[in-house]
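Hi U.,

Before I forget, here's the chain from the pilot set. I'm dumping it here mostly so it's searchable later in email.
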Amino acid sequence: MTWLITGGAGYIGSHVAKELVDGGERVVVLDDLSTGDPARLPAGVPLERGTILDLPFVGEVLRRHEVSGVLHIAAKKQVGESVQRPLSYYRENVEGLRTVLEASAAAGVERFLFSSSASVYGMPDVDLVTEQTPCLPMSPYGETKLAGEWLVAAAGAAHGMATASLRYFNVAGAATPELGDPGVFNLIPMVFERIEAGESPRIFGDDYPTPDGTCVRDYIHISDVASAHLAAARRLAADPSARLALNIGRGEGVSVAEVIAMIRKVTGRADITPEVVARRPGDPARVVASAELIGRELGWTARHDLEDMVSSAWSSWRHRH
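Structure:
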C-alpha cells in the first residue's frame, strides 16, 4: 500500500517519511514548501508540490499514486501567530483538512491519520493528562486541532475510514543533524539562540507550584513521534474499525530549569546563567501526558530521554549554524 504524507517535507513530516520508508512502507509526499525543504525527503520519495486547499490537485495525487492511507501533518502551528491570524489558521488547518478528507473519501482512501496536538487540552489541572481529560483549548491553533479531530472522526465514521488522531506533547531533537527543527519557537532552540548570541536564556517565571518553581512539560523526541506514526499507520492498515485518539508523550515531566541544566551539560557551557523574567500569560504550571493508552493500543513506548533530545538538537543546531 502507499501512504500520502501531507507536509512531509517539514520538520515532523520528514521524520515520519523517514520512519515509514525505513519500515518498508511506500510513501509519497504532498507539500507546498512554505516551510518544508525537498532536501529533507528520503531518496526516491516522490514530492508533489501544491496546496492542501486545492481539491482537484489533492484528488489527482491520491488517484495517480493509488494512495490507500493518508498521514495529514500539513498545518500552521504557532500558537501566538494563531491569536493574531485566526482566519488564516482556520483556513489552513480546518478547511485544508476538510479538503484532504473530501478528496480521500472520493478516492476511496480507507485509512486516515491526523496530526493533532496537546494544545487541545488547554490548561488541564491534573497530574497526568489522559485522553479522557476535558479538551478546553486556549488558542485558535488549539481550536483548529480539536475541530480537526472531530472532523476526522465524523468523516471516518461516514465514509468507512479507519482513523487516528495523535496528540503530540513537546517535540524536540532530530534523527540526524540534517533533519533538525529550523524554527526557533520552542524552548531548546530558543536557549541555543540566546547562548550563541552571548545572551542569558530566559525563564518565564520561577514561582510556579512545581518542585523548582519552573514550568513542567512532557518532552518527546521527534524520532519517537515518528515511530508512533508508523505504529499507528500499521494499526489502521490492520484494523478497519479503528477510531483512535492518542497522546504521544513519555509520561515524564521535565522542568524548564532541568532542560537548561541538560543544555549546560551537553554544550559544555557551565557558565550559562538563565535570567528569570515575568510569567507568560496562559502558561500552565504542569502539562504531562499519560502514555498508557498508546502503549495498550499500539504497543508503543518512547525510547529516547532528555539527553538524547538535547544532544541531537545541539548537533543539528551546529550543523545549520
